[in-house]
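Researcher: Let's continue the batch. This sequence belongs to Delta-aminolevulinic acid dehydratase, and it's 430 residues. Same format as the previous ones, please.
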Amino acid sequence: MASSIFSGPCTVPAVEGKNYFGLKPSVKNNLRFNDGKKTSIIGCPKRVFTVRASEKKDGPIKKLGLSDAECEAAVVAGNVPEAPPVLPMPAAPAGTPVVPSLPLSRRPRRNRKSPAMRATFQETSISPANFVYPLFIHEGEEDTPIGAMPGCYRLGWRHGLVEEVAKARDVGVNSIVLFPKVPDALKSSTGDEAYNDNGLVPRAIRLLKDKYPDLVIYTDVALDPYSSDGHDGIVREDGVIMNDETVYQLCKQAVSQARAGADVVSPSDMMDGRVGAMRKALDAEGFQHVSIMSYTAKYASSFYGPFREALDSNPRFGDKKTYQMNPANYREALVEAHEDESEGADILLVKPGLPYLDIIRLLRDKSPLPIAAYQVSGEYSMIKAGGVLKMIDEEKVMMESLMCLRRAGADIILTYFALQAARCLCGEKR
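Model: Same format as before. Here are the structure tokens for Delta-aminolevulinic acid dehydratase:
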């Protein structure tokens, strides 16, 4: 691209100085533009100056010193300044068939032809503010790697946890959710450790709130990390998961977490009626400001395997199919969403994420509440494994998967990629 090209005839010689580049006019209105044919001026040869925007200069380009009125008058008189020529049409490769243009009134590719236009018309955006970072904690002081989840650790609650939160905040991730690895000696069939005010999770919440008062802390409300049976609820001697008795324990757990300073309690147990009971229990204790993010559509998925290794919380027997949803079911998610909304949930969550994009979209279309998606451990580990084996570009697949969750309708995404993805979005490579 070039600037305007002028022909500057006058009665003084050309000068280059501090104030002008080209010709310095000595008398007002004695400068004329080239009309494209000839310039008639007595005693001064035709001079044409061209300055291209692509040329490198030591300083700013100097102007010719014409007033706006002089420029406009020249154009009105037909003496239009020259401009760079139109670029020629790029040549097609040899052998390209010559065909008439298709009679298309709409060509969607027009809006995709350059990076700037693609950015202009991008419908979905993603930022670190959309992420909730799941963090595993334990009683030890060292950070212990999780074999099935490369890059993830059981963090020591006094040191590693605080350091990881600081890293996340540095790149704009200010929301976390805590998952505890509880010592086996503290587990029981009724999961009483879940509502110990001086337990691992309440202590970690108080520590983080003391260090970072504005940090948004989500907590997991379920008995499986605390149960000697590894189930989300109390197990009867015949193997049945008891619903109402479990809900009673969960309410005490939620109140304990709120008392410690949790901003959002997140029942992941899938017991019937737990959201309404939890809302009443929180309100009765003065925690009306604490939100409930319900695991509304939590499926009995095979994608949870690495998570259970991280918490050492595999069920001692059986499976979780009598309380988690059947992966084959779609409409059932609406039943769960309707109940959670009526009971006072503030956020509806779908778990897993990417294999259940249709469920995320379903809830997004049917509910006015914020929708969360959990990109679970199996999704994370598959992408990590594919990257290690050089079968995929880990970073690109990571970002595409997160964008897909947003496109489907998720307002927030719980993802173990939160720190890594936020660094990518911030342009920081580590």
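Researcher: Any comment?
Model: The chain is about 30% helix and 15% strand.
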